[in-house]
Amino acid sequence: MSDNNETMKWFQKPDPYFSTDYDSKERFCSYWHQINEIIQLRPNKLLEVGIGTGFVTKYLKDKRINVTSLDIAYPLIPDVAGSVLEIPFADDTFDVVACYEVLEHLPYSDFPKALKEIYRVSRRHVALSLPDVTTIYRINIELPRIKPIKKLIPHPFHRPTRYMLDGEHCWEIGKTGYPLKKIQDGIACSGFNVLKTFRVFEFYYHRFFILEKE
Q1: Are 131 and 173 in contact (CB under 8 A)?
Q2: Is the pTM of this model over 0.85?
Q3: What CATH number should be reported for the domain holding residue 63?
Q4: I need a labelling partner for 187 at 20 to 30 A (CA). Which of 39, 96, 132, 208 fits?
Q5: Residues 6+ apart with CB under 8 A from 92
Q6: pLDDT tens-digit readout, 20-56
């Protein structure tokens, strides 16, 4: 799919980022994790692939982090308009590359190419998130004088459902044909080590991966 075709598809549908129900309370919990993971990695130069609403980019810039945003949809006003499949920067340009809720918008056949481009421009670390619909139990226990217990426990007998294209996502973790292991194997084949992976307790649809170049 060409960059022009992707941009035309963006023009032909309503902008989801600025609808009244997009930025839910749960999504702001995900924003917190997006920002926190980046800050913990202490980048001198950061590339954010996919600007979305611009909230994360603006927050990081306000904190004087040297961040460059990249997005194929130039009406969102990224710093640089371009595709994750052909990132317009030299090798090892950025200490950290953040790519949150982006790659599922591409056909899975493009997943390895996107990861290799991210690998190429990153010096060391990558913060990645992808949608995960794997069935999960959420446990929250709060008792007096006892530290709260919050856990996400995967359902041992999760049954993947057939993926129905919705015009937005091409695939999601936990759908038929896309188990977590397949995604992790794809990440490993691109040359990354997975330092940690987790789902956001308040918004467990988002799974994070913190990656390091081998």
Answers
A1: yes
A2: yes
A3: 3.40.50.150
A4: 39
A5: 120, 121, 122, 123
A6: 678 889 999 999 999 999 999 999 999 999 999 999 9
